[in-house]
From TrEMBL:
Keywords: Cytoplasm, Glycosyltransferase, Metal-binding, Transferase, tRNA processing, Zinc
Cofactor(s), names only, from the UniProt record: Zn(2+)
Organism: Cladophialophora yegresii CBS 114405
Name of the protein this chain belongs to: Queuine tRNA-ribosyltransferase catalytic subunit 1
An example Gene Ontology molecular-function term: tRNA-guanosine(34) queuine transglycosylase activity
């Protein structure tokens, strides 16, 4: 029997497991350096995190960010990416990049997108000419981008869709498209292709998809199609079902998740990687993510609050001047929020840093085998005066954690 495995550009080292829940702590060695899991990946759609320079993003501690294949494919375009040598060089980012397949943006942004077995057909937003994104084209674009982690093209439909036949078709087509992606991927020794499990909220379909895709032995595995308006209880069931079918020694990525409470629960259910535009988007609305919940600093109650955005936070925005930070106060953000974009930039810095430092605390708690106590403490603080949401209580109870 052959023991040869498919080429892969990553190594995955599992360091610790929670003795109660399914939480794990590991290190993922990627072409542009190591990242520690569980981790949150900020989204830099246009090869830039809105409001932050690459240096500022580096300062937040981020070592893996997301770029958007669809946007980069349109502008600067594949020819420019090939000339310059990929997205790392384009944006002056020496750490890791993950790219989506480009499919999701087409389906979500372009009402006229049509999905056939061949690929996703749509009209160019520039000149209205017909275009087709196939699994082969998605791989070719991501090869030109040079991302450390590339995602397969999948057939995504809203999880809440009642059309069971269409859901099944999308799940099965995603498996066929994965096979085409594997064949088309030119650099498996230097770029990692992740498969994406589909199947909506139907656990049997998710199981089938897991069994088929795990056989394909991709370097990492993602759970897709969630965060589309489904009930949190359903979301948890899907994550729990899928992680139970995944091999232990591969990174597990739940796409589109960014609320701290969702991440804390998904980690307990055995997930390792998350991404979401929410922490950066909400910063632009004046919202600061803190351990005590989300604060809207546009509120007049902060007009004379001269404390930092979050007490004890070590981000560049919150850190005192004498400690090399900017020493920004809530009152200053309140003052800026209404009229100056710099307020949004400062909060983006804080929010990304907050999420990354939350992930660091989660990791330490798992390594020290006190994740159940961490969860309890997190929910008490984050929901302050209110009881924790019922879906979280139930999901955590399912893996042995009482909060
Ligand atoms: Zn801060």
């Amino acid at each position: 029997m052959s023991t040869a495995t498919k080429p892969s550009a990553l190594t995955f080292d599992l360091h610790g497991r929670c003795s109660t829940s399914k939480a794990r702590a590991s290190t993922l060695q990627l072409p542009h350096g190591a990242v520690e899991l569980p981790m949150f990946m900020p989204v830099a759609t246009q090869a830039s995190l809105k409001g932050l320079t690459p240096e500022q993003l580096e300062e937040t501690g981020c070592r893996l960010c997301l770029n958007n294949t669809y946007h980069l494919g349109l502008k600067p375009g594949q020819a420019v990416l090939d000339t310059i040598g990929g997205a790392h060089k384009l944006q002056g980012w020496n750490y890791n990049i993950l790219t989506d397949s480009g499919g999701f943006q087409m389906v979500s942004l372009l009402k006229l997108a049509k999905i056939t077995e061949e690929g996703v057909r749509f009209l160019s937003p520039h000149d209205g000419s017909p275009m087709l994104l196939t699994p082969e084209h998605s791989m070719s674009l991501q090869n030109s981008i040079g991302s450390d982690i590339m995602m397969q093209l999948d057939d995504v439909i809203q999880t809440t869709s009642p059309d069971r036949a269409r859901m099944k078709e999308a799940m099965e087509r995603s498996i066929r498209w994965l096979d085409r992606c594997i064949v088309a991927h030119k650099y498996p020794e230097s770029q990692n292709l992740f498969c994406i499990i589909q199947g909506g909220l139907n656990l049997e379909m998710r199981r089938q998809c897991c069994l088929e895709m795990v056989k394909r032995d991709t370097p990492g595995i993602a759970i897709g199609g969630l965060s589309g308006g489904e009930a949190k209880t359903d979301f948890c069931k899907v994550v729990d079902t899928c992680t139970s079918l995944f091999p232990e020694k591969k990174p597990r990525y739940v796409m589109g998740i960014g609320y701290p409470e969702d991440i804390v629960v998904a980690v307990a259910l055995g997930a390792d990687m998350f991404d979401c535009v929410w922490p950066t988007r909400t910063a632009r609305f004046g919202n600061a993510i803190t351990a005590c919940g989300v604060l809207n600093l546009k509120h007049a109650r902060y007009a004379e609050d001269f404390g930092p955005v979050e007490e004890g936070c070590s981000c560049t925005c919150c850190r005192a001047k004498q400690d090399g930070g900017l020493g920004v106060s809530r009152a200053y953000i309140y003052h800026l929020a209404a009229k100056e974009t710099v307020g949004a930039h400062l909060l983006t810095m804080h929010n990304v840093h907050h999420l990354l430092s939350l992930m660091g605390r989660i990791r330490t708690a798992i390594l020290e085998d006190r994740y159940p106590a961490f969860c309890k403490d997190f929910f008490v603080k984050y929901f302050e005066s209110q009881p924790p949401p019922e879906w979280a209580v139930d999901a955590l109870k399912g893996v042995g954690i009482d909060i």
